[in-house]
Structures are given as C-alpha cells and as structure tokens.
Design goal:
CATH architecture: Alpha-Beta Barrel
Order of helices and strands: HEHHHHEHHEHEHEHEHEHHEHHH
Number of domains: 1
Strand content: 5-15%
Number of helices: 16
Structural class: alpha/beta
CATH class: Alpha Beta
Bound molecules: zinc ion
Strand order of the largest sheet: 1-2-3-4-5-6-7-8
CATH topology: TIM Barrel
Oligomer: single chain
Radius of gyration: 18 Å
Length: 339
C-alpha cells in the first residue's frame, strides 16, 4: 500500500472519529505481540500481514472473514482488552489529533470465542482502558454496543438488555455484519426498545455495492430510529434516499479506505463522499477498521482530499458535522475541543 504524506494543515485539525471497531483497531505491534505469545507463526512481516492485515481490495469474503476472526481470537483476556482499549484511544490522539472518539464493539463476537470471560468483566476492562486514556490525553471517548445481524433476534435481545444495563458505558446501539444476506427488518423492535431506553442509534446500512441495498438506509431511518448511518455510500444510487437523509438531518459515517478495500466503491477516486456532500448530505470521515486495514484518521482525511477532491474547508465541515452528531454530550466535548 502506498505511503501517504499528510498535509501539516490536515495533521493540525482536531478530529472526531465516529465509526471505529475496537476489535479491529489494534496497533499492529500489539497484535503481533499477542499473536506470537499465542503460538502463531507470524514473526516474519509477510506472514503477519497474510494472517491479519487487509491491504488491497478483497478477493473473496471468507479469507477476509478469517482475518477478522484471527484478530478477535487473540483478545482472550480482560487484560488484553483493557490494554487494547487504551492503545486505540492513545493512537487516535497522538497520531491523528482525535479529540472526540466513539468506539464500537460486538460483545457477542468477542464472547463467542472467549466463553471464559464474563460479559460484565469484558465491559469493565474496556471502560477502564478508555477512562485511562481520557485521564491521560485531552480527549473524550464513548462506546457503542453492536448487534450482529447474522444472529437471531432472541440472541441479540440479550445484548440490548446488556447495553441498557450499562448506560454509564454505552451511548448507543448499532447493527453490523453481512448486510446482503440479513435484512434489518427483524431487528426493528430491538432498536425501538433501545431508543425508548435512551440509547442513540446508528445502523450499518447501504454499504456493499449491491443494487437496491440503499433501501436499508430508509428502513434504518424510518423504522429503527437511526440518528446516523454507518457507511451509507450506496445512497448515491437513489435520489429519494438522498432526500430522506437531507430531510431527516441524518449524517453518514463514511470510511473511504474500508469502502475501497471491501469493494463498496470501485476505487478511492470513485468514492461518492464529495458527490453526496455536494447534494446536501452531511458526510463524516472515519476509519472503520484501522488496525487490520492499516490506516488512521489522518490518512482517511488525506485520501478524501487527494482522491475525491474535498477541500480543507470541506474536511473541516465534515468534522463540524461529526462533532454536532456525536453521541457524546456536547458539554463533555467542549471541555476537550481546542478553541
Ligand atoms: Zn463498521
């Protein structure tokens, strides 16, 4: 993958990250250390990259899924989780000047493999890591609980209760995973319950390049109470969906590198962020899976600038929208946002 130089002006911008998966954001040195400790044969960079990283547009899904699972599998103690939570925050601040950070994770995804960890202990460990980062750096961090659409409504209902019972930790609820084969409709009641309970709502919708998939954006807004949409770049296929995003003031959490690597857009230069922004949609710029996709928020800004032609002022506009639509309370953000 190309090494990209970051404009000093982009480096200097304080930033907001709204869409980052904690389990897939590990610092590479830490991921390699964990893997070696657990007996993976990944001392050589090439072997490490083959086992864990995604650096070119994906071929078939199973090999990519395998990399997600490898990463998840090494997160097998609460100590690992606390360290990773702290380091992800630290990297965001030190590397990309992120002041407002929302991290999301799927408790069911982690605990599927690590059945010896209690859910409360997992959540406590992640919160300890996050609180330590907030005490160390001028940043605020919030957590989002992810439901996996590949699992049953009954299974996911437990995690809605979990999120509602940890309101001091979770700000919002999300729905993620295979959008092509699993429709959002069965999960509508769960999202309505979460919203009624005071959680913010964001939904992965309109991500893969599949004709008609933008209907999931409409479902998320009209039936699930979505305050924001994860990705949503396929809104570009339907003017009615674009209108709906504008009328309901719903921003998109866009992730250029991830969208390119997963084939959601044909190349970085084909990413529709500028077109959607010009049409009047509130767009934001995020990393999605910075660890395994070898990116960071500065690089996402730089790529949006270099490949899609967003000006520095337009990049700042994306940050303003992200700040305004963060689930973290405005007064907490104000305390760390530079004048
Ligand atoms: Zn995502």
């Amino acid at each position: 993958m190309e090494v990209i130089a970051i404009d000093p002006a982009i480096q200097a911008m304080p930033k907001v990250e709204l869409h980052c998966h904690l389990e897939l954001a590990l610092r590479q040195a830490t991921l390699k250390e964990f893997a070696l400790e657990r007996g993976y044969d990944v001392a050589e960079d090439k072997k490490f990259s083959d086992a864990f990283l995604i650096t070119s547009p994906m071929g078939e899904l199973p090999s990519v899924l395998h990399k997600f699972l490898n990463t998840r599998d090494v997160l097998d103690t609460v100590e690992c989780l606390e360290r990773v939570a702290f380091e992800v925050c630290e990297d965001m601040y030190l590397h990309s000047n992120v002041r407002v950070l929302e991290l999301r994770y799927a408790p069911s995804f982690l605990l599927d493999k690590h059945t010896h960890i209690a859910a409360d202990a997992m959540q406590d460990a992640i919160q300890r890591g996050v609180r330590r980062a907030e005490a160390t750096y001028p940043m605020v961090v919030g957590l989002i609980c992810i439901l996996q659409r590949i699992k049953s409504v009954a299974d996911n209902a437990k995690w809605v209760d979990f999120a509602l019972n940890h309101r001091n930790g979770f700000l919002a609820l999300d729905l993620a995973d295979n959008e092509v084969d699993f429709d959002p409709e069965p999960f509508i009641p769960l999202f309505r319950r979460a919203k009624a309970g005071g959680l913010g709502i964001t939904v992965h919708a309109g991500e893969p390049k599949v004709p008609g998939i933008s209907k999931n954006i409409a479902t998320a807004i009209e039936s699930m109470g979505a305050d924001r949409i994860g990705h949503g770049l396929q809104a570009i296929e339907d003017p009615k969906v674009i209108d709906l995003l504008i009328q309901t003031d719903t921003p998109l959490e866009m992730c250029p590198t991830s969208n390119w690597l997963t084939g959601a857009c044909a190349g970085l230069a084909k990413h529709p962020i500028k077109e959607l922004m010009t049409a009047g949609v509130k767009t934001t710029i995020n990393t999605d899976d910075p660890g395994i996709m070898v990116t960071h928020l500065n690089q996402e800004f730089q790529r949006a600038h270099a490949h899609t032609g967003l000006s520095h002022d337009q990049l700042r506009q994306c940050t303003d929208w992200a700040r305004q639509h963060s689930f973290i309370p405005a007064e907490r953000i104000a305390a760390v946002w530079p004048d």
